[in-house]
Amino acid sequence: MSYSANTRIFHVNPDAPEPDFIQEAVDALRMGGLVAFPTETVYGLGANAFDSEAINHIFSAKGRPASDPIIVHLYDLAQLETVALEVPELAYRLANQFWPGPLTLVLRRSKRIPSNVSAGMDTVAVRMPNHPIPLALLREADMPVGAPSANRFARPSATTAQHVLEDLNGHVDVILDGGATIIGLESTILNLAKDPPTVLRPGGITLESLQTIIPDVEMISKYLKADDTGIEAPGMLSKHYSPQAEVLLFTGSPERVIPAMQIRVRELIKQERKVGLLTPDDEYAFFEPFSAQIFRLGSNLSEISHNLFTGMRELDQARVDVILVHGFGSNGLGAALWDRLLRAAEGRVIPC
Ligand code: TXA
Ligand code: MG
Q1: Nearest residue to 162 (alpha-carbon basis) of 348, 5, 9
Q2: How many other CB atoms are there within 10 angstroms of residue 111's CB atom?
Q3: Partner of 9 for a Cys bridge, out of 116, 158, 175, 199, CB 3.0 to 4.6 A?
Q4: Is 310 in the pocket of ligand 1 (CB under 6 A)?
Q5: Ligand 2 center to residue 167 CA distance, Å?
Q6: Among candidates 192, 190, 144, which has minimal Cα distance to 44?
Q7: Does ligand 1 come within 6 angstroms of the Cβ of 160?
Q8: Ligand 1 pocket member 243 (CB < 6 A)
Q9: How far apart are the first and last CA of the chain?
Q10: What are the φ/ψ torsions at residue 259 (nearest 5 degrees)?
């Protein structure tokens, strides 16, 4: 059975959150309820991380399998010792450099954190969000808050309160609407429970900036071939961060990719399939002549990241059958974009 709630929405000033609205959300958390809030990455669906029953409500509200662990959010470094054990010195160096910010650290779990937060594992993922709303909420509640992205399981993450409402209306007690999130892609997850540390998910903090502190940091193997031919075996990635439409992910040099995409668009239209495109602004003209739904992603990696999930949701709403998109390299945010696109395409890539 799914968690049900009478959803209340508060429009909160993201620069100076109104104390009354924060208090409403704190009360909901204290009663074991669920609160959705913006972060600098995506919206989170939060519950008291010390309350295993409240955490269970997150899983049922999202329709998320219990095998998928949840990130714990903090507002103060002093809380780290209450959620994690044997915190290495490296964790503090990284936190000093990147927190608050889009870096999640996987550490050994303190027994105070119930095991369902971490899907039964003896580790816990923690981060400090760089956004005044969750920082005020966490400070007033004075508890660690477990929060996955505030979308139904396997759907694109929510980057606006409207997205949260689309997916979770009636399954969350309070939505703090602080406008669109900034980065638009989730945090980078770094496993410090292993040596050398490994990036489990590329995100808002790039591999290049982690290398300034950990020169031998590694990406887990499935990303090594990023923007080449995808992963070893097609179909190995479960559908995640996904629109309902089929996603065709092209990769290769622009001189080859754009003509290949144009040819495919023409074929699909001939087959009477409704075609959607996610395209950077400077490529719009190549596709404009076709009768396709085109969503413009913007003109640089930051804008493209900010807009990606909104684009997937809008094309779904336009009820397209298929979405064509290409990779954006593997430097900087390109790696995180590639990861989300690869999952949306269920691991299948069209090399050009
Ligand atoms: O930016 C973000 O990280 C957002 C905002 C809300 O903070 N949160 C987010 O959570 O993206 P979610 O649940 O959508 O993704 C969390 C992922 C899990 O799917 C899992 O891959 C990883 O974090 N994770 C959580 N705990 C872990 C652990 N103990 N060990 C390894 N990976 C873990
Ligand atoms: Mg998620």
Answers
A1: 9
A2: 8
A3: 175
A4: no
A5: 13
A6: 144
A7: no
A8: no
A9: 46
A10: -60, -35
Q: Which of 62, 186, 190 to mutate to test the pocket of ligand 1 (most atoms within 8 A of CB)?
A: 186
Question: pTM higher than 0.90 for the full model?
Answer: yes
Q: Which residues, including other chains, have CB under 8 Å from residue 195's CB and lie 6 or more apart? A: none
Q: Count of residues for the chain?
A: 352
Neighbours of 308 (CB within 10 A): 28
Q: Which residues 6+ apart lie within 8 Å of 196 measured at CB? A: 214, 216, 217, 218
Q: pLDDT tens digit string along 159-177?
A: 999 999 999 999 999 999 9
Distance of CA 335 to CAs 7, 216, 225, 295, 320, Å? 36, 17, 10, 21, 26
Could you give the CA distance from residue 258 to residue 281 in angstroms, rounded to a whole number?
A: 13
CB 160 within 8 A of CB 43: yes
Give burial (CB, 10 Å; 0-12/13-18/19+) of 103: buried
71 close to ligand 1 (CB < 6 Angstrom): yes
CB 157 within 8 A of CB 149: yes
Ligand 1 lined by 142 (C-beta under 6 Å): no
Higher pLDDT pick, 228 / 122: 122
Percentage of the residues of the chain whose pLDDT score is greater than 90: 88
CA distances from 20 to 14, 17, 172 (A): 14, 9, 19
Does 39 contact ligand 1 (Cβ within 6 A)? Answer: yes
Separation CA 83–CA 38 (nearest Å)? 22
Among 73, 104, 237, 333, say which to mutate for ligand 1: greatest number of ligand atoms within 8 Å of CB: 104
Q: Do 294 and 282 form a contact (C-beta atoms < 8 A)?
A: no
